[in-house]
Every structure is written in C-alpha cells, then in structure tokens.
Amino acid sequence: MARQTIVPTGNELVMRDDDFIVSKTDLKGRITYANKVFIEYSGFDEHEFVGKQHNVIRHPDMPRGVFKLLWSHIESKKEIFAYVKNICKDGSYYWVLANVTPSLDDGGQVVGYYSVRRKPNPRAVRVVNELYKRMVQEEHKAGARDAVEASIRYLNGILAEKGMGYEQFILELQAS
Fold it and tell me: What is the CATH superfamily name and number for domain 3-175?
C-alpha cells in the first residue's frame, strides 16, 4: 500500500460535527493505534496502516513546510494545532483541525505522539487552502533541496504581516 499510488479524485468528505479522529504513533511517526473514525474517513482497514508511516494519508496538496513545523513543535515536547488535508484510500480528501501532542513517559521522555482531529471551520479551510497552495508553489519554485525552507519562509512572511504567531493564526481562524 504505497501512498503514491493513490490518485486524488477531488471528492471531498466533510467531517460530522461530533466526530473525533484519534491516532497514536511511535517516535518515527508509524501508526500504533487509530480509532474507528480514522478507519471510516481514511478508507483503510486497520491491518493496512498499523505500523505504517502516518503520512500514508498525506494529501499531495499539503505543503512540506507545515509538517516540518509540526514535527519541530512535537519533538520539542510542545503541542501544536494545524489544519491538515488528508487523502483517503479511494482518492477522496477531508480537512481536519489537528491537535498533535507528544506522549511522555514518567521520566518526561517522549515515547510517541497522540493526535486528535476534529471538523475544521469551513471559513478557515478556505483561507488555509489558498495559503497552502501558495506554500506548495514556493516549494516547487525552490526545488526539492530548499522546498521546506521556502515554504516556511513564505508562511512566516504571512504571519509577520498579520503580526501573530502560527498558533494564534490557526486558533483565530477556527474561531472566525
């Protein structure tokens, strides 16, 4: 089950208001647990994703810079909120507002990651979708080696114009 064999269809699934998608991963981002709602939206059977990288559901429209930001936060033992466009096994997609947190052992060491996703604000998705398109364009212009840095530089420029940090931007969008 290679992620790159999934062809996006443009068919959007919209989460229900009371749905929560939950998953856990190990330190390398391999899925160790996912709830039934994850299975429902992703379209994968449990045996197809347990032990696989969480990016099996990464939509190609997602900028690499967003995931670099996400990983830098959680590896630093900080939670993060982010809008994410995921791809389903059948090529459909769905947007989520993800809250990703590190799981710590009794000694305070990170032993894995925990993510809870819920339905995003539709107005926020429109804003973020356009932002992500521009970030992906910046990644393509920069080339593979410099893509992530170009994407983050573009995002940071937008945030500087707004006079706010990433988390404030995300949470304000959700509240709008």
Answer: PAS domain (3.30.450.20)
Task: List the chain pLDDT tens, one digit each, 176 residues.
Answer: 444 579 999 999 999 999 999 999 999 999 999 999 999 999 999 999 999 999 899 999 999 999 999 999 999 999 999 999 999 999 999 999 999 999 999 999 999 999 999 999 999 999 999 999 999 999 999 999 999 999 999 999 999 999 999 999 999 999 98
The secondary structure element, H or E, covering residue 141 is helix 122-142
pTM of the model: 0.93
**Residue (of 175, 168, 167) closest to 72 by Cα position:** 167
For the chain, domain boundaries: 3-175
DSSP state letters, 27-85? TTSBEEEE-HHHHHHH---HHHHTTSBGGGGB-TTS-HHHHHHHHHHHHTT--EEEEEE
End-to-end CA distance of the chain: 38
Q: What element of type H or E holds 133?
A: helix 122-142
Q: Which residues contact 33 (CB under 8 A, 6 or more apart)?
A: 22, 23, 24, 50
Q: How many CB atoms lie within 10 A of CB 147?
A: 20
